Amino acid sequence: MTDISKRIIKEGRGLSSRSENPRSLKDFLVYLVYINMLGHDTSWAVATVIQLCGNKNLQVKRTAYLAASLLIDPMSELTILLTATIQADLRSDNYLTVCTALQAIPTIANAELAGVFLPEVIGLVRHEKDAVKKRALTTLHSLLLVEGLDQSLAGDIGKVLIDKLAYKEPAVMFAVLPGLYDLIDRDPEPYKGLVHYFTNILKQASDGKLGRNWVVHRAPAPFLQVTLLRLLGRLGQGDAKVSKDIQSVLVDVWKRAESLTSQAGNAILFECMKVATSIVPSDALYSMALESAAMFLNSADNNLKCAGIEVLTRMIEDGDAGKVAEYQYAIVTALRSSDVTLKGRTLDLLFRMAGPNNVDVVFTEVLQFVMDDAIDDESRRYASSRLLEMAERFAPSCSWFLDSVTEMLKKAGAVAPAAADL
User: Fold this and answer.
1) Is the distance from CB of 117 to CB of 125 less than 8 angstroms?
2) By the 8 A CB rule, do 178 and 141 touch?
3) What's the pLDDT score for residue 351?
4) Each residue of 234-277: pLDDT tens digit?
5) What is the spatial distance between Cα 34 and Cα 394, in angstroms, rounded to a whole number?
6) Under a CB-based contact definition with an 8 Å cutoff, are residues 323 and 286 in contact?
7) What is the pLDDT of residue 224?
8) What are phi and psi of 216, to 5 degrees?
9) Is 238 left (phi over 0), alpha (psi -120 to 50) or beta?
10) pLDDT attached to residue 67
11) pLDDT value at position 253?
12) What is the pLDDT of residue 365?
């Protein structure tokens, strides 16, 4: 037993669940959380924790629900004992108690309990308090993600989310979007009629019409903009009409994001580029994406370089490798970076760019990557294997192939690909 474990257990000896003092009860629950984290058995306290979830004091109740989420397995039959307490709290006159119960539902809900809680959670979406509406909508999203949930229930959740999409309070409307994104990601077709609503909300957010409370680093509602862009990008995949409807708003948001010159603006700009490479291709959008990706790639910030590399990679995946060939030098320079993450992403891009005209340059640069002491064996093995494939496909001559592969085998050593033994 470690010194920390001994100290926590020693200090917990004076705590009791029988105390009437809310502070003492809260300390007792926190103590249980700590000893559970340290790997000690806490099954003896589960009944007490469930009992304290019904405590009148809000702080004790919140802490008890937290402890229950950590101590009780969602698949355990003990969750049934907690269900009655949560349902009682959902009907409380105190909206903070209702929010606490809503927050506890996702931590214990399985497929069976999701169906039990769903009608009451849907009812709370119409609560008079916006805080409860918002929490109910986020809880619906959590229930949507429960494994084994009946798909007919998912349809009911979708209708409720759509109903609140035009709500006057932005925070409530924003709470709708994550759930809608998951539904759209599964099957976008039933939701393509919402494109008009999404573009209108995005335009308002980009214009700063949601108020100063939503401004982050001079960017108006950046998190909302990013979420909406992801939704529109998914809806526009393979659909020429939706892609056309998106384009004008996308360009406006793009230009405003470029003018922000902040990290929040860069996040919006990056999402705009991803949308441009996701929807049905447009020459104008592709040109904008290339310019913005080049700006990221030439930045001193490695995070922006990674973003630029990802955008260029997405373009190649769409079969347009020729358009990024002019950035080959900048891409090769990124491979020489000391940032391991940047190296890995650049490596994939270079392999996609490889062809008969540049195989020698790409092979030489990637071989230097293989020799880098900072690279782990798994990455070295992967790069060596891809080098062998590239040499087999694009070798300009047999002598070049033999010389290059021999050099690669010398440098790769024990991590050389098994196929090279043939």
Assistant:
1) no
2) yes
3) 85
4) 999 989 999 999 999 999 999 999 998 889 999 999 999 999 99
5) 59
6) yes
7) 95
8) -130, 120
9) left
10) 93
11) 95
12) 86
Contact present, 113 and 83 (Cβ < 8 Å) = yes
Q: Which residues contact 272 (CB under 8 A, 6 or more apart)?
A: 229, 250, 253, 254, 257, 292
Q: How many CB atoms are closer than 10 A to CB 73? A: 10
- The CA–CA distances, whole Å, from 133 to 160, 178, 331 equal 11, 15, 48
Rounded Cα distance, 265 and 261, in Å: 6
Measuring CA to CA, which residue among 358, 253, 265 is closest to residue 307? 265
Residue type, 226: V
Q: Which residues contact 161 (CB under 8 A, 6 or more apart)?
A: 137, 140, 176, 179, 180, 183
How far apart are alpha carbons 334 and 309 in whole angstroms?
9
Tokens of 413: 């050593």
Q: CB-based burial of residue 328 (10 Å sphere; 0-12 exposed, 13-18 middle, 19+ buried)?
A: middle
193 with 200: CB under 8 angstroms? no
| Cα separation values, 203 from 174, 196, 246, 268, 288, Å | 14, 11, 11, 13, 19
- Alpha carbon separation from 250 to 184, 203, 209, 272 (Å, rounded): 19, 9, 17, 7
DSSP string computed for 199-233:
HHHHHHHHTTTT-GGGEETTEESHHHHHHHHHHHH
- 63: closest CA among 31, 91, 93, 95? 31
Let me know how many helices (H) and strands (E) the chain has, helices first.
Answer: 21, 2
Using alpha carbons, select from 346, 353, 357, 422 the residue that is nearest to residue 395.
357
From the list 311, 343, 344, 309, the residue with the least C-alpha distance to 328 is 309
What's the pLDDT score for residue 318? 46
- For position 198, what pLDDT does the model report? 95
User: For 38-81, what is each residue's pLDDT tens digit?
Assistant: 888 888 888 889 999 999 999 999 999 999 999 988 778 888 88
How many Cβ atoms are within 10 Å of 12's Cβ, its own excluded?
A: 16
| Contact assessment for residue 157 and residue 143, using Cβ atoms and an 8 Å cutoff | yes
| 390 close to 351: Cβ distance less than 8 angstroms | yes
Q: List, for the chain, all residue ranges whose pLDDT scores fall below the cut of 70.
A: 1-19, 317-321, 414-422
**What would the two tokens of residue 105 be?**
């539902």
Question: So what's the pLDDT on residue 304?
Answer: 93
Which residues on neighbouring strands pair with residue 219, listed in sequence order? 216
Compute the CA torsion angle 77, 78, 80, 82 (nearest 10 deg): -160
Q: Which residues pair with 195 in a beta bridge?
A: none
